Amino acid sequence: MKKSVIINTIIDIFVLTAAFMLMIWLKPATKRVYLPNYLPSFLLFLGFWIVFSLITKKYTLYKRNDAWKASIYVITINLVIIAFSSLLMFAFQSLFYSRLVVFGTIIFTTFFEIILANISCYIHTAPDIQKDDISSKHQVSVLDDILSAADADINIAEDSKAIANIRDAIINESGVNAYNFIKSNINIYNKNNIVLSTIYKFNIDSLSNNDINGIVNLQRINDIRYINKFFESINKKISVSGNFIGCVETKNLRKIRILKKYPPVLNYIYYTFDYILKRVFPKFSLTKKIYFLFTRGQNRVISLAETFGRLYSCGFDVVNYEKINGLLFFISRKIKNPVYDMHPTYGPLIKLRRIGKNGKIIYVYKMRTMHPYAEYLQEYIYKMHDLEKGGKFHNDFRVTMIGRFMRKFWIDELPMLINFFKGEMKIVGVRPLSEQYFNLYSKELQELRVKVKPGLVPPFYADIPKTIEEIQESELKYLRKHMKHPIRTDWVYFWKASWNIVVKKARSN
Description:
The chain has helices at 3-26, 31-55, 67-91, 99-151, 160-174, 176-185, 201-205, 227-237, 251-261, 266-280, 285-295, 304-313, 378-384, 401-408, 417-421, 435-438, 443-449, 460-463, 468-484, 486-502; strands at residues 193-196, 212-220, 238-248, 316-324, 327-334, 349-355, 361-367, 426-428, 455-457. It is α/β, with parallel strands linked by helices. Among the domains are: 3-128, no CATH class; 349-502, no CATH class. Strand 1 (193-196), helix 7 and strand 2 (212-220) form a beta-alpha-beta unit. Helix 19 (468-484) packs across helix 20 (486-502). The chain is flat and about 85 Å long. Residues 125-154 have low confidence and may be disordered.
């Protein structure tokens, strides 16, 4: 943790405590009564205040150049703390606290924080501008060297100065190991390969070179506001089979970093709030607006599955990846145009594109058990991992920990009752499959499958097959019987599946 953040945190603890004691002193009652009753709650509130302030980086914004924006940010954060604290008070029916003590403490502390923000911004304005200008000029000069060399049709591989500039820029930004990884996978000195360090789509769209073989971006995708739009712009700029190299701090790498950065106990408290604010909040429509108000989409929590899923949805195939300096660097290759998914799902209830009766596309409702954009990774997972019994993918990193629990007890499949009442599914029938999974099946089975509605209870639970071949044989047997005696077949299969589920404890993985 930076020294300035530690100092600001200590000052804030002192000010919040002093404000609390002042409000207790102003209260026209015996201090020996108020203080013991309020102290435990105050200590809990103090911990929440500090953790939330650290997560939202309130203590680092004091060095910003715009004192007005810093003040507004302080007020906004503290208003959210007030709102959240009020909800907790109502939830636990703790309404006996004095409004003078509660709101007086917060208002006094907020006023002091605004003063501190203005003083700090005034002190750090000149040095920060100078430092930012130098950094910007250095990055621009390096990029200008690359682009001017390409425009002049210079052989960059033979230009020692350009080589040194590119090498130094990459090492300064990402380190020696990242430089070696990038250099071993793409010729960064070729005029048709571009090296950037940006989070803005504009910088991709403004590239004048229309014959780009590869793009390397050194900025992690966690800080990009519209990730898919950014990837789509890269897809447009590079040719088919061209490479895109980028980096991301995955959810697991972020957890490792936070737990190492902070002392025990505090690290897990920080990680919990960080996960809620930057992983859970963006998944709900209401909290999503609050999240983007504070973060502008930067420093978000992104899983490995979501990263790869976004790449595949934007027309890339993941070729290789490696963990370097706390980041995961990936190499992807353009294989097609983007899907342009206009309605991506992040929340707990999702709609999955599936093949229904007569080959019609239906959208099956389920509880989310996988990371966002994981549905685009079926082909990648099938290529990298084998199918286990039940037709599931072995070592499927797309499934979340909560998702595994819901799958075990079919909680995730309860929303499919919506499809049943809409007439798109029936009680017993084959599973509704995605197009990628559907294409793994034999031609005969594909033709039979689209003649009937998919079902809530698949024949899998009646036959308990173990391999993909056995699953196909099980479905073929069911469909052939169903064509001859539909009602009787579904009746027999329903009770046989129920017996295996209840008595033999057959479960979905």
